[in-house]
Amino acid sequence: AAGKFTLATKAGIRRDSETGNNFFDNSAKHLTEELDKSLQRLKVETIDLFYVHRRDANRPIEEVTQTLAGFIKAGKIRSFGFSEIAPSSLKKASEIHHVAAVQSEYSLSVRSPELGLVQATKHLGTALIAFSPLGRSLLTDRPHTTQKIATMGFLKSNPRFIEPNLSANIEATAKFRALAAEMGTSAAALSIAWLLHQSEHIIAIPGTRSVPHFLEHCAGARLNLSKEDIAQIESILPVGWAHGDRYSQQQWIGPERYC
Questions:
Q1: Are strands 13-15 and 22-24 parallel, antiparallel or unpaired?
Q2: Euclidean distance between CA atoms 150 and 156, whole angstroms
Q3: Which pLDDT does position 160 carry in this prediction?
Q4: Structure confidence by residue, pLDDT tens digits, 145-155
Q5: Are 150 and 128 in contact (CB under 8 A)?
Q6: Which residues face 49 on adjacent strands?
Q7: pLDDT band at 3, cuts 50/70/90?
Q8: What backbone phi and psi angles, to 5 degrees, belong to 144?
Q9: What is the DSSP letter of 2?
Q10: Residue percentage of the chain with pLDDT more than 90
Q11: How does 96-117 read in b/e, with b if 16+ C-beta sit within 10 Å?
């Protein structure tokens, strides 16, 4: 499979052994230890893309970038990236070394990257890796039910999936699902197609454990949309349509807000 896939992994979050609470650690010591463990577990000599999972606000990003650049020089990684950083942080890091990728939630339900991150990554030649491109199920033909959400640790405390927001969001996306059906495709495929049409440097990374869902997602990459299609989609789901914040107060610890 070498050469067909990009092997990526992350580090930068630790758990306090006494309290059980997570905290961010971007120190050279921690990143080196975690990278070495990943190399051993994956049984490879080099990892294609190594992410800092969460920015440690107490440590200058320039220092962290120097550490990551050292991993490239040592042959342990081929490139590196950051997750959920602000455009200003990306620019600082890029002054030290080219940043290959930045992960950010981006979809029809989360448009905030358009207020600086899409532009900054494109200008700097950095790939924008869009996670949760399906709105955590809201932009699919099968949004999660309250029963399903009750079993999911992250979503059951997420504002968009707590009533009355959940019902409002499912209702708000109903016309989008109907449009996808009219176009002869799935809502998931249409969601991914819309995202990929925003810019060539954007890569969607939907998660799935199902082969049929995986094939559905791949169909989105092959779907060609006209300007009229894009306009119709955005008229149904305009900027700011979603009910509830994308993260709870606790979930917002770590990601850098910039707008």
A1: antiparallel
A2: 5
A3: 97
A4: 999 999 998 89
A5: no
A6: 8, 79
A7: low
A8: -60, 140
A9: B
A10: 86
A11: bbebbbbbbbbbbbbbbbeeeb
Instruction: Provide DSSP, 223-256.
Output: ----HHHHHHHHHHS-TT--SS-SS-TTTTSSSP
Residue closest to 195 by CA, chosen among 103, 255, 116, 111: 111
- Residue 83, CA distances (Å) to 29, 88, 93, 184, 186 in order: 19, 14, 13, 34, 29
Q: In what order do the strands lie in the sheet with 8-11?
A: 8-11, 47-52, 77-83, 101-105, 127-131, 202-205
pLDDT tens-digit map of 72-107: 999 999 999 999 999 999 999 999 999 999 999 999
Give residues with Cβ within 8 angstroms of 36, minimum separation 6. 76
The DSSP line for 156-225 is GG-GGGSTTHHHHHHHHTHHHHHHHHHTTS-HHHHHHHHHHTT-TTEEEE---S-HHHHHHHHHHHH---
11 CB-near residues (< 8 Å, 6+ apart): 30, 31, 34, 35, 38, 50, 51, 52, 53
Q: Are 217 and 195 in contact (CB under 8 A)?
A: no
Q: What is the pLDDT of residue 1?
A: 54
Number of alpha carbons in the 13 Å side-chain half-sphere of residue 257 = 8
Q: What is the pLDDT of residue 146?
A: 93
Average pLDDT, stretch 189-196? 98
What's the pTM?
0.93
Choose the weakest-confidence range: 1-10, 40-49, 156-165, 224-233.
Answer: 1-10
Nearest to 59 by CA among 68, 50, 48: 68
pLDDT at 4: 79
**Tokens representing 74?**
């040592």
